[in-house]
Amino acid sequence: MARNDIHQLNRKFAQMEKQLLNLQAPNKLVGILLERSVRRNFRAGGRPRKWPISLRVLSGHKTLIKTRRLMLSVHAHAMKNKLTLSTNVPYARIHQEGFDGIVNVAARSSLKTKRTRSAFSYDLHMPKRKFLMWQDEDIRPIERIYTRHIMKPFTSTA
């Protein structure tokens, strides 16, 4: 009888270990929370500190929200042991990290308009406008999500 109880206990521990090591469910919840937080960064014009003033703000609009493409491109990818928050917009990195330098534009021609454009360069100063980040206020809810996941095997009766 005792031997059977030990096997049941070992199976239960193996099941608990498997459940604890698979973080996909809590990662998905944290990903949703972080996507919303990033969108709040855009709507606020930067958090916790406002982004540097842009020409769009001076004309009565919000910085980085003309088409909302960048804001809506931020997505979380939840996996078993990893959570990634990313965007596939090519210019996102310039806004996130800033840029100071010369931009070279290659010559090109259009088959549609049959026009040719010469190569040119220009100076670009783009201040950092960090949008892909979490806030201090996100930490507590994230902790609760992972704590709930960790405690689940110990509180379930199955």
Produce a short descriptive summary.
This protein is α+β, with helices and mostly antiparallel strands and 158 residues long. It is built from six helices and six strands. The mean pLDDT is 90.
Mean pLDDT: 90
Distance between the termini: 20 Å
Q: Helical stretch count?
A: 6
The domain count comes to 1
- Class by alpha and beta content: alpha+beta
- CA radius of gyration: 24 Å
Q: Would you mind describing this structure in some detail?
A:
- The structure is a single chain.
- The chain is an alpha+beta fold.
- It has one domain.
- The protein has 6 helices and 6 strands, in the order ααααββαββββα.
- Strands 1-2 form a two-stranded antiparallel sheet.
- Helix 2 runs antiparallel to helix 6.
- The mean pLDDT is 90.
Core attributes:
two-stranded antiparallel sheet; 6 helices; 158 residues; alpha+beta
SSE inventory with pairings:
Elements: H1 2-21, H2 24-44, H3 55-58, H4 69-73, E1 75-78, E2 83-86, H5 92-97, E3 99-105, E4 108-109, E5 116-117, E6 120-126, H6 136-155
Antiparallel strand pairs: 1-2, 3-6, 4-5
Helix pairs in contact: 2-6
